[in-house]
Amino acid sequence: MKVLVAVKRVVDYNVKVRAKADGSDVDLNNVKMAINPFCEIAVEEAVRLKEAGVATEVVVVSVGEKPCQEQIRTALALGADRGVQVETEGSVEPLVVAKLLKGVVEKEQPQLVILGKQSIDGDNNQTGQMLGALTNMAQGTFASEVKIDGDAVSVTREVDGGLQTVKLKLPAIVTTDLRLNEPRYASLPNIMKAKKKPLDVFSPADLGVEVTSHLTQLKVEPPAERQAGIKVASVDELVDKLKNEAKVI
Amino acid sequence: MSTLVIAEHDNSTLNGATLNAVTAAQALGADIDILVAGAGCGAVGEQAAAVAGVNKVLVADNAAYGHQLAENVALLIAEVGAGYDNIVAAATTNGKNTMPRVAALLDVAQISDIIAVESADTFKRPIYAGNVIATVQSADAKKVITVRTTAFDAAAAEGGSASVEAVGAAHDAGISEFVGEELAQSDRPELTAASVVISGGRGMQNGENFKLLDGIADKLGAAIGASRAAVDAGFVPNDMQVGQTGKIVAPDLYIAVGISGAIQHLAGMKDSKVIVAINKDEDAPIFQVADYGLVADLFEALPELEGKL
Question: How far is Cα B258 from Cα A77, in angstroms, rounded to an integer?
Answer without folding.
Answer: 37
